[in-house]
Amino acid sequence: MFVTFPNSPFRLFKPFEPAGDQPQAIEKLVEGIEDGLAYQTLLGVTGSGKTYTMANVIARLGRPALIMAPNKTLAAQLYSEMREFFPENAVEYFVSYYDYYQPEAYVPSRDMFIEKDSSINEHIEQMRLSATKSLLERR
After folding, report:
1. CA 12, 134, 25 angle in degrees (round to 5)?
2. pLDDT category, 139, cuts 50, 70, 90?
3. Which of 8, 70, 95, 129 is surrounded by the fewest CB atoms within 10 Å?
C-alpha cells in the first residue's frame, strides 16, 4: 500500500503500519526537525525498524534526506531498503568506488617503497555520479 502525506512529494510504500515504539519515535523525530533541532538520535536494536521509521519521517516531512552509514555494507543495505520504501522517488547511493585500495608506503626496515595500487568499480562510479547529479539538481 502506498501512502502520501500533505505537501510531501514522496510516496511511501507501507507494507505495514508502524508498531511498538515506532509511532512515538516518528512523531518525536518529526517534531524535533520542525522545531529546528540540529541533532537527534534514534536508537534501536538490529531489526527493530529504524530504517522504516526514518522512511516515515522523510515521507511525512516531505524533505530530501542524506543518510550516512559507517561502512559500505550498511550503506548498501540502507540503499536497498530505502529503494523499496520509495520506489517512485529518487534514492541514490554514494560510497567509495574503490574495490581495493593500497596507499603508497615506505617500509624503513627493508628500505622499500611500495607503490599505490587500487581497483575501481565502474558501476559504483556511475552510481556516485548519479548521486552527485541528484544533489546538485534537486531541491
Report:
1. 35
2. low
3. 70
pLDDT exceeds cutoff 70 at 72: yes
DSSP assignment of 64-106 equals ------SSHHHHHHHHHHHHHH-TTS--------EEEEE--EE
Contact 41, 25 (CB under 8 A): no
Query: Would you call 130 exposed, middle or buried from its count of C-beta atoms within 10 A (0-12, 13-18, 19+)?
Result: middle
Average pLDDT of span 15-35: 96
Which pLDDT value is given to residue 136?
83
- Cα–Cα distance measured from residue 10 to residue 61, given in angstroms and rounded to the nearest whole number: 9
C-alpha cell at 139: 531541491
Residue 3 pLDDT exceeds 90: yes
Quick check: 86 and 8 in contact, CB under 8 A?
Answer: no
Cβ density class 58-84: b for 16+ within 10 Å, e for less = bbbbeeeeeeeeeeeeebeebbeebee
